[in-house]
Give the backbone structure.
Amino acid sequence: MEIELPENNLNNCHRVGLNRKRGPLVVELSSFRLRHDVHSNAFKLKNTPVSCCEDLISEDRAVRRVLIDCLKKARKGGRKAQSRGRFLFIDNKKYTADELTQANGPYYGASSV
């Protein structure tokens, strides 16, 4: 990656798991902008043993799971769909996970939040 990351930009850094030798490394960055820069450049780590992803709380993981499920169904149906944060855009119309899984929603029956 091509990001300057001085030590004072790291709030916290620790390994997760029992072994603590190899495993996920949680890094807390000092600013949202720096976090965005790191995630924007994560594609440069392709074909390396290193990867980069967000550490989401369980509620956000559940919402993301519903959105990705509906995104796949929409694309399989030939519709234009993309996910941004807690929203899914299908044919340029904005949906939340709750709207997608309601009885009158376009993807009723998708795994609920």
